[in-house]
Design goal:
Number of helices: 3
Order of helices and strands: HHH
Shape: flat
Oligomer: single chain
Helix content: over 70%
Low-confidence stretches: none
Strand content: under 5%
């Protein structure tokens, strides 16, 4: 009985949040339900990743960070540099391309 209690409570909370979201946004209930489930799962994964990064809750000194957290940190840094370079290229094209 206890094994079925928590998943049932979780589904009821998600269904309630989806019903509120569907009422506010005008979406159909099942689309709202899928959006709420995806948002909760992505938020959980992001919180776990943040806790596993060096300096996070699970690795405060950075010595026991999992490999995936270190790789993800480098990927985020590389994407940040690429975004900065593309913004600079767009600004350069805007200012120098109009002459």
């Amino acid at each position: 009985m206890k094994r079925a209690l928590w998943p049932t409570v979780w589904l009821l909370v998600v269904a309630l949040l989806a019903a509120v979201f569907a009422a506010i946004s005008g979406l159909r209930f099942w689309w709202a339900f899928l959006i709420v489930v995806a948002a909760i799962l992505i938020n959980g994964w992001a919180a776990t990743l943040e806790d596993d990064l060096p300096g996070g809750l699970n690795s405060p000194d950075g010595t026991h960070a999992p490999r995936y957290a270190i790789v993800t940190g480098w990927i985020i840094r590389i994407l940040g540099v690429l975004l900065m370079l593309s913004c600079l290229a767009a600004l350069g094209a805007y200012f120098f391309g109009s002459q």
